[in-house]
Amino acid sequence: MKSDNIIIAVDGPAASGKGTLSRRLASFYGLAYLDTGSLYRGVGWVMLSRGLSPRDVEDAEATAKAFTLEQLDGADIRTPDVGRAASVVAALPEVRDALLEFQRSFAASPPNGLKGAVLDGRDIGTVVCPDATVKLFIDAAVEVRAERRWKELNERDSSVSYEQVLEDIKRRDKRDSTREAAPMKAAQDAHLIDTSMLDIDAAFTAVRREIDKALMKSAMEGQPTA
Ligand code: C5P
């Protein structure tokens, strides 16, 4: 990683608001953005669309090794089925290893010559970019997250019930945080932001405060001493 690269690591569970915040942060600070969940969703989607079981380790590893974002052209990866398949393949160390290099090189050499990147996911601060300039862990009460995701899904499919979404999120949280390979958890030096009671503007203000402090600190550390 270039030493002057700015890396903002944003981790947290489903529907915590980390995706919306990360996109906004990337645009505000002029950084590239990578939604790492889309890589796991992508592998899950390719497997489902080929009739493969996401639990099959060999097929999942081969799919992850051959995976490119171009394969997702036009694919709907935001469905509950794809979310579940993503969480199943994401528990396999073979799949995580296959996707790690892509994430690290994105952070080391962001596209379009940008001076850094925002990556969001579950293990960015702990595994993918442990030396990130600033680490955030975005969380919210599970009921609040389920309601947000339910409203989002309802715009496309009114047959999905709030209870189903709540159950789905609870199951996914459990699988993501208890798996052995890179479980979802806040890095020790991450700033924890609970968005349960915050709208997007208030959450953005809260995370900017932490980022500006961290950028200031990293700039001071980079100053030559007299
Ligand atoms: O963030 P999103 O809900 O799109 O992620 C889908 C799934 O991908 C998560 O439930 C998780 O299992 C997996 N994931 C992961 N590590 C990441 C990003 C996502 O394990 N860095």
Labels describing this entry:
five-stranded parallel beta sheet; binds cytidine-5'-monophosphate; alpha/beta; 226 residues; Rossmann fold
Summary, kept brief:
The chain is α/β, with parallel strands linked by helices and 226 residues long. The protein has nine helices and five strands. Helices cover 52% and strands 12% of the residues.
Describe the fold and architecture:
The protein has 226 residues and is an alpha/beta fold. The chain has a single domain, classed as 3-Layer(aba) Sandwich (Rossmann fold), CATH 3.40.50. It has 9 helices and 5 strands. Strands 2-3-1-4-5 form a 5-stranded parallel beta sheet, with helices on both faces. Helix 4 runs parallel beside helix 8. The longest helix has 22 residues. It is globular and about 60 Å long. The chain starts with 5 loop residues before the first strand and ends in a 5-residue tail after the last helix. The model has no long low-confidence stretch (mean pLDDT 94). Bound molecules: cytidine-5'-monophosphate.
